[in-house]
Amino acid sequence: MRVATFVRRVTALACIALLSGTASAGLFDDEEARRAILDLRQRVEAIKADKADRSDRVDLERKITEETQRSTEEATQLKRSLLDLQNQLEANRAEIAKLRGQNEQLARDLSEIQRRQKDVLGALEDRLRKLEPISVTVDGREFLADPSEKRDYEANLAVFRKGEFVAATNGFVDFINRNPQSGYRPSALFWLGNAQYASKDCKSAVVNFRNLITQAPDHVHAPEALLTIANCQLEAKETKGARKTFEELISAYPATDAANAAKDRLSRLK
Length: 270
Prior knowledge:
Shape: rod-shaped
Order of helices and strands: HHEEHHHHHHH
CATH class of the largest domain: Mainly Alpha
Distance between the termini: 175 Å
């Protein structure tokens, strides 16, 4: 604004000088006036150019400022985005670690379940094996029996061998009733008869010994059963019956110790 005013003032003065050139003798001639105007124009152009340069610099500085501000804002936004991304990555890492921990826990749980399942199956197999029939040999006879039969028979026999004849009698009676088809039955009848004979219940003893001989005449204890029957008859004063039983024993089982004992007792009866 001030430059324009200055230019106008200089131009006005130049015009005045030109006009007064004719009126004012010798102050300025035409050539000098032209030079002055040209010089003035050059100065004005220089001023304008300088002004334009300064304006360009201002524009450049403004653009630089705006660009710097924009770059700063973009950098800030980028930094914020990077921070958000980093936070997201950290969250993802934490989630992955959590999932990894859960997977490891699931693996441990699965291993524990498999171990327990193995234990349960093992226990079940053991129980099934205990329920499955097993091969046993008793008094020279081989047969299949449930493990529970074997356990109960041996328990009752142990009671008999301790001399607890009443308890053994009850045990063998219960055993025979619960296992009527058991391979242990002939042996159980023999020990039942012996327990009853030891308890002086000869009548019951004779019945069970006869059952043994009828059901298993080839049983290893059949000769002894006949010998005990004859002894019961002698104790009951049934001499005729005892003699008959001795003869039966000698005839059926001649090569046994029981038969030899029967011969000896029979000879004394005569």
